[in-house]
Amino acid sequence: MKALAPALLTLALLAPLAQAGISISPPGIELKPGQQTAELRVSNDGDHEVSMQASLVRWTQDAEGRDAETESRDFVLYPKLFQIAPGKDQVLRVGRLPGAPGNGDTELAYRLTLRELPLDQGLANGVGVLLRLRLPVWLLPVQPRRDWSVAAPLAISAGGGAPRLSAPISNRGNSRLRLSEVVYQALDASGQSQAELKASGWYVLAGASLGFSVELTPEFCAKASQIRVIAQVQDEQRQSTGPAAPVCGARR
After folding, report:
1. How far apart, in whole angstroms, are the C-alpha atoms of residue 227 and residue 199?
2. Helix H or strand E encompassing 237
3. Is the backbone of residue 202 left (phi > 0), alpha (psi -120 to 50) or beta?
4. What domain of life does the native source organism fall in (predicted)?
């Protein structure tokens, strides 16, 4: 089965993709300047016919990194509705409409959703749930420019729950960042790491800032004179370090 990036895949009721028998290639689309169309191949590796509906929305993040989706009329999808017999493929074509924005100085992001529709015959895909697959569509900038930084660690409230440790990562470049993970280290007085907390990576879109937070535990704070944050983007790493006392407070 062709691989899908886990963070880009959502399944209604958490249905296993392998059970559903659906695979997609490639797992996302990049449109370079001057490129107007692209294709996806949707394969049905299962033993039941599936019916799918395609849609596309504009994807943005605000200054705090919150995702937002808005209806888009920048693309045409063909076909929008299709059925795939067991062992067969369907090519989905994605085309930019004349006058649509993008391919200027800043990358634009979209999300393509493939939603399984119920069939008359029994259970969908043989597992009793309907799939919803989401993939990114990127309109690449003319000249990509990477410029990003990691802020000093801070404590944030979690709506009455346990406080969380966060370090906003700001993307001042003109294209997305894809972080593999963010690591928080509790440093002792000599600067040696005594404990680690890790946050899963995600995208930070151009112009956005996103805090990759983890629960701030008393055990972590008890070992920390300082807190170091390490963020990794492809082959590039950024760090920041700050005193633990203002962050941990009563968690010590």
Report:
1. 15
2. strand 236-243
3. beta
4. Bacteria
H or E element at residue 220: helix 218-222
C-alpha span between 60 and 22 (Å, rounded): 28
- Please name each of the domains of the chain with its CATH number: 6-139 (2.60.40.10), 148-251 (2.60.40.10)
CA atoms within 13 A on the CB side of 51: 8
pLDDT in tens, 178-215: 999 999 999 999 999 999 999 998 999 999 999 999 99
SS3 state at 126 = helix
> CA 6 to CA 168: how far, in whole Å?
23
Tokens of 66: 């919150």
Please tell me what DSSP assigns to residue 160: T
The 10s digit of each residue's pLDDT in 95-149 is: 999 999 989 999 999 999 999 998 765 444 455 578 889 999 999 999 999 999 9
